[in-house]
Write a sequence for this structure.
């Protein structure tokens, strides 16, 4: 089946499943997003997006898009996309229980005398597509159902905060498939994206000069490893520039200029060379750990990836070190915090650097006042039991503060009335953990500003 319109069942309505479903329905496919969380399904049916992700909510009411907790749509689908979570297990490897449960359920629902393509979009270790295929075939054999079910790997490369943009305007679409049916059907599923033949959403225009995405067709093992390798490499770039930032502080160099100088080299590129307090979120930490665990199973040490993780988590202590150097003891001090999400334009605080920093501040006896325009509710849950005041307005964190920390680079923080807020502080110190603000302008307004990898003459 290679017609323009396909019936698609998406298993899981989280970041990946929801974004994929919304995009495919916009392209004209008939999409059913299936999730076991009935509260989430109810919110989506009512047109409410349960996650903070730009552009998604406005597309929830499309005529060819449904949200359901009923799995019946699986049997009617042409293509089934597995988008369930793969959280880290106790040993650090990916927990595949949700993937395997989905595979078994799919095998119990497929109709006889039909052909299906099942693609795993979840981030999974090498060999998972084969395991899914085995579970599906096992369920079909128990039913004695004569059904063609091809399993492929189709990893996602979506950034939180820009997920729909990345879905519609990707650099590449990767498919790992051993059967021609799977590769052909997935190519046709994504054809409007590969050819950029669709009309862009009004609030998400096609970028000028956009090159057509590559269709990368490989074996399933290579496809599964591409996802892990990509995330590990991006994490490595961030950890590298953060390690360089520490040396910049020692020798008086400016990490921003160093990053610019090396980023102009086409072999390196400027992306992911912004020094700061390190990466967080649901992907880099989980995926680098899973990659290390996979390598351990083959007695192969991943020394670089291990170092990437060590540098990243040590970088979170940079904020504490700077505060202790500037304020000496932190006990009894009032510390304001701007930003809790692991990155802007999301409400996600999973593995966010801010959580470790706030926990350490409270351990050291500081009084913490924090603000985030989207992630405060999730941070409140993650920090339950910790004595933190969550401000409704960013200006509140300056009141009586001995220092204010910039932990997430929200655009709104750049336009705060700093010239007025300096008078609200007990000590006019800003520690900019993202090099986000204009340090020179703030210094002219009476602040002392400490940035990451910045020379003293700019502080």
């Amino acid at each position: 089946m290679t017609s323009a319109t396909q019936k698609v069942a998406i298993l899981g309505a989280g970041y990946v499943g929801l974004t994929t479903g919304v995009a495919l329905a916009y392209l004209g496919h008939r999409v059913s997003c299936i999730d076991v969380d009935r509260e989430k399904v109810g919110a989506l049916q009512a047109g409410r997006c349960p996650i903070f992700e730009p552009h998604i909510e406005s597309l929830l009411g499309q005529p060819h898009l449904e949200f359901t907790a009923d799995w019946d749509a699986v049997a009617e689908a042409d293509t089934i996309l597995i988008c369930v979570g793969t959280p880290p297990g106790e040993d650090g490897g990916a927990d595949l229980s949700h993937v395997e449960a989905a595979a078994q359920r799919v095998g119990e629902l497929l109709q006889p005398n039909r052909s299906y393509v099942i693609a795993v979009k979840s981030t999974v270790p090498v060999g998972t597509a084969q395991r899914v295929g085995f579970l599906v075939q096992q369920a079909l054999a128990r039913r004695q159902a004569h059904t063609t079910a091809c399993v492929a790997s189709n990893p996602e490369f979506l950034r939180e905060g820009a997920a729909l943009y990345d879905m519609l305007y990707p650099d590449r679409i990767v498919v790992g498939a051993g059967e021609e049916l799977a590769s052909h059907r997935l190519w046709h599923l994504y054809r409007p994206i590969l050819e950029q033949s669709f009309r862009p959403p009004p609030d998400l225009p096609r970028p000028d000069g956009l090159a057509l995405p590559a269709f990368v067709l490989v074996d399933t093992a290579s496809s599964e490893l591409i996802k892990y390798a990509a995330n590990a490499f991006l994490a490595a770039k961030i950890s590298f520039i953060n390690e360089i930032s520490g040396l910049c502080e020692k020798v008086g160099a400016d990490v921003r200029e160093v990053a610019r100088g090396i980023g102009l080299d086409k072999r390196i590129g400027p992306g992911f060379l912004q020094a700061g307090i390190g990466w967080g979120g649901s992907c880099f930490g989980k995926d680098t750990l899973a990659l290390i665990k996979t390598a351990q199973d083959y007695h192969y040490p991943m020394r670089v990836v291990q170092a990437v993780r060590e540098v990243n988590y040590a970088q979170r202590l940079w904020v504490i070190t700077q505060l202790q150097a500037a304020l000496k003891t932190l006990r009894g001090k009032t510390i304001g915090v701007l930003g809790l999400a692991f990155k802007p334009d999301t409400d996600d605080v999973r593995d966010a650097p801010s959580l470790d920093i706030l926990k350490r501040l409270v351990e050291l006896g500081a009084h913490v006042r924090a603000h985030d325009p989207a992630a405060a509710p999730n941070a409140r849950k993650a920090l339950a039991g910790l004595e933190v005041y969550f401000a409704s307005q960013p200006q509140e964190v300056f009141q009586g503060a001995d220092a204010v920390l910039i932990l997430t680079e929200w655009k709104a923080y750049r336009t705060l009335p700093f010239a007025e807020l300096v008078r609200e502080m007990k000590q006019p110190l800003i520690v900019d953990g993202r090099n986000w603000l204009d340090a020179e302008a703030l210094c002219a307004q009476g602040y002392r500003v400490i940035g990451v990898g910045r020379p003293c003459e700019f502080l």
In short: The mean pLDDT is 95. DSSP finds 17 helices and 14 strands in the chain. The first strand starts at residue 7 and ends at 11. The radius of gyration is 24 Å.
